[in-house]
Specification:
By secondary structure, the chain is mostly helical. It has helices spanning 2-32, 37-59, 62-88, 103-126.
Length: 134
């Protein structure tokens, strides 16, 4: 039973990393597609954060994995929240439209990412910790 839970956790970690990479990649792509100014800087930072969190999702273990999953979940919630704010009331003086490049795709990827990362976080927090030899 414990082995199947570990296999499920590993599968969810890989899916989480892929979705974090997709989110980061979308933001980096948009910078290269011409988004500039403060939004471009924020997109570069978002892209870097997505890549770093994706790598951490695959290479960390134990408490660091738990921290990584929580931070990754919060990252995607904040990223989607910022986009939804920009689509509705505006954010930092920027108002976004649904027909801008990759906006619908970003909402889909980040929404799926939030669900996957919520499951990954729950699994990581429930995973038994390895007993260290004395």
């Amino acid at each position: 039973m414990a082995e199947s839970n570990q296999r499920l956790l590993w599968t969810m970690r890989i899916l989480s990393a892929a979705l974090l990479l997709a989110t980061g990649g979308i933001h980096i792509y948009l910078v290269f597609a011409g988004v500039g100014g403060i939004l471009g800087v924020l997109f570069v930072l978002n892209g870097i954060a997505g890549i770093v969190l994706a790598v951490a999702m695959v290479v960390t273990r134990g408490r660091l994995l738990q921290l990584t999953t929580v931070l990754s979940l919060l990252f995607l919630i904040a990223t989607l929240g910022a986009l939804l704010l920009a689509l509705t009331v505006g954010l930092f003086g920027i108002t976004e439209t649904w027909d801008f490049t990759l906006v619908p795709e970003t909402v889909i990827v980040e929404s799926i990412g939030i669900v996957v990362l919520a499951i990954t976080t729950a699994l990581a927090l429930r995973a038994p910790r390895a007993v260290r030899p004395a």
